[in-house]
Amino acid sequence: MRRRKAILLCFLAFMLVPISFAPIGSGPLSAAAAAQGEEPYFTNLDLFKGGTEGYHTFRIPSLLTTKSGTVLAFAEGRKNSAADNGDIDLVLRRSLDQGRTWQPLQVVCDAGPDTCGNPTPVQDESTGRIWLFVTQNYGPDTYGAIVNGTSRGVRTIWSVYSDDEGATWSEPVNRFSEVQDPGTRWDGTGPGIGIQLQQGPAKGRLLIPAIDRNIQSDDHGATWYQSGRLPAGLGEPTVAELSDGTLMRNDRLSSHQEIRRRGISTSRDQGATWSPISYDPVLLDPICEASLIRYEPADPSSRIVLFSNPADTMVRENMTVRVSYDDSQTWPTAKTVYKGPSAYSSLSVLPDGKAALLFEGGEYTPYDKIMFAVFNFAWFQTPEADLDDVQFSDGSLTPMFRGDITDYQLALYSGTEQLSVTPVTDNDAISIEVNGEPAEAGKPKTITLGGSEAIAIKARLGERTRSYTIHLERNRPVPELLLHWTFDQTEADGIPDTSGKGHTGLMSSGADLRPGLDGNALYLNGARANVQMTNVEDLHPEADNFTFSVWVNPEALVQQRHIIYWYGLAGKYPQWWCAVEKNGAVRMNLFGMPAGKEVGVATAGGLVKTGVWTHLTFVRDGSVNKIYVNGEWAATSVQYDGPSMNVTNRSTPPLLGYDKGTAANRDWLGSMDELRMYRYALNDADIRRLFGSLDETKPVTEAVTEPREPNGTNGWYTSDVTVTLSATDNLSGVARTEYRLNGGEWKAYRGPFAVTSEGENKLDYRSMDRAGQLEETRSLTLRIDKTAPSLTIEPDPAGMWPPNGKWVPVRAAVDAADGVSGVASVTLVSIMSSEAEGRMPEEDIREADFGTDDREFLLRAVRNGEGTGRVYTIEYKAADLAGNTASGTAAVTVRHDASPPPAELPGR
């Protein structure tokens, strides 16, 4: 505990000093870390992994560090599937050394075939007792059935406790009558952790967050009751007591989910009443559980709060921890813990002051495993040397590349000897090496493989490095094309198979050919029109890998699901099918024997749109299914026992665009083109090439400037120019856009940039599409002159004497210069007299042609009898070609007397 106290003392010292916050590298946390001389620390290990310990999936993490330092990691152990209902146990692993080693898994709650979940523990620090609240329901009862009243039972809240740091647990107690209203059907605690109040009249109160309220005890758990109700529309809550005693709830939204932010409600009377919901603009949320904790709840002066969730508005990925130094009012510091798919999380503070995070994540889905990460505050201020992507000209990378994964397998075809490697990063400060040689981000680097077993890629940012190892596998057979329909023509017996395998397509029920991508396309009317595949013996998948690719263009997306292809029969029979959902998501489902299991995978919504051609590829690859959209990986299923899963069904032919289900109202409506099938899992590079194979048109890049037009004259700008580049490619899409200035190095375009150099700037720009076609270089000339010309004026003579009323010729030597655009004009503006109250004394000036470059004129040598004399002020204006102007004046003096003017006095 000494180290923890030392860190906290440093926190308090720095909290007294005004600090300017930045995304990473400032604030009390980094100051404290610097004061301690800490090196950045981060570890991450797999704690619960699906498919082990007798459980199909582990979900719903909850992390509690006890007062004596024991770390308790709770989770749901889901026996037979990843579903939220069924046979689900509440399991626990314990660590006695701050998470470095863990004791074996133990079961805290086993409800037989039913569901026990939603762990939410809290420790009573005065007694040491750990209370754990859970929910239970009958295994077959789904959320929908419970809510609509068709289930066998309802969801009830239970509690257990431990007096020995989680080693053993009491028998569960049903708390329904105490903490749930009589008519409650669906309910939930947390999940996450509870808190014990540290301030106010209710100091010592135990508090468990639950749907629409908190569950509380003021007698160390002897009895429990409900707090005041929160506004409706919240769920899966987390709660914290702020430094002034205010209770803050931070919830997932159950209504108004389109806001995609966290819902906040506060109580200033320790839970009796709650404020209306507000939405934190910083806390992005894909509608998922999150975690919120005070860093040191027992210290009233500490305003440091930690928050974790998958920081995205649409998908569950990018697990991020944020830090607030002002009781959650602002969140100036954030860093990604895990870049991949990720979902639920639970934060805690370890005895040595480090933070710990228990969270769901995986390579392919957010639910592959539950990980345990530990980090210190110096880690927050340290940028990582991560690459954004690494692309290969051939092969399939496993897992999909992510900057914080360092070890990969690249499967290549037999005999591959050369490979192009393209590292990608948005951070220009990162230097890259491939096999020890410098490499440039965004530029392919060709390497000869020889006998190499791996490729070494290193990214360096300052003193931080990240090394990636790409292990090579070069024994995959080249895939064989089994079916290819171009739909460009029909023959007497149907659509010809250009692969030569004889898989003729039989059109029926209104199927038609209409203009498509390149020639004709197949059109299906959404009302039983379909195409049947023939001679299908070699198309039976058995337990083998396969690839199905097709271009689609839906006319409408009106039903829940729009079938593209269906092999087999609907029901509990071997089958596989693919479809587009109503929301534009893409789905692939397999059902196989002998296990009789169904495996599905779906992408995020919005990837397929009506009236737009989209390329889809469906791949069965070993123990996972993959979906690619427009050549890019979009979704992968959880792993399953692929080698033994046989999806062959010889009793019915495969159909294109036809719904074999009982509803029979999900037929494809729209067009399809360029359909291919392989008895092989195509790799990433194959699919990118397949996607770009029809694209013979190069991308088009447009440049827009701000100001839109030159804001000077003669085609010159008189300010910096911001350039925005936008590229379009109607088929394969844009892979990258780049630019260079004045013949310099090409740079990757990552957003609007400013051109600031004066003079004539030549901007070159171009784009490449995903088919590898590079646009011819386009150019734009930007002439910038932000500087006014220089101007000096020397009249001759500069003084007149005597003031006898005679006309005196005056010649003005005017020197105007401009080093950028050049001088366009010099103009005589005015000649003013000091004795004419600023007016131009025409009777005292002759032959002055104002508004022209007149440099010779007559001034009368005259003055009033009183005063110090007369001063003629001569003004000229110079303009450059860009329209910048400069004005200058010079004086001709008619002195009061014969004494020399002050400027001519000795010593001046």
From TrEMBL:
Pfam families xref list: BNR_2, Cadherin-like, Laminin_G_3
GO molecular function terms listed in the Swiss-Prot or TrEMBL record: exo-alpha-sialidase activity
Signal found in the keyword field: yes
Domain LamG-like jellyroll fold: 544-685
Key words, A-Z: Disulfide bond, Glycosidase, Hydrolase, Signal
Signal peptide feature range: 1-22
Catalytic activity as recorded in UniProt: Hydrolysis of alpha-(2->3)-, alpha-(2->6)-, alpha-(2->8)- glycosidic linkages of terminal sialic acid residues in oligosaccharides, glycoproteins, glycolipids, colominic acid and synthetic substrates
InterPro entries: Cadherin-like_domain, ConA-like_dom_sf, Ig-like_OmpL47-like, LamG-like, Sialidase, Sialidase_fam, Sialidase_sf
GO cellular component terms listed in the entry, alphabetical order: cytoplasm; membrane
Any coiled-coil regions, as ranges: none
Example of a GO biological process term: oligosaccharide catabolic process
Domain of life: Bacteria
Keyword Hydrolase applies: yes
EC number: 3.2.1.18
Residue stretches spanning the membrane: none
Family, similarity comment: Belongs to the glycosyl hydrolase 33 family.
Protein name as it appears in the record: exo-alpha-sialidase
The organism of origin for this protein: Paenibacillus aurantius
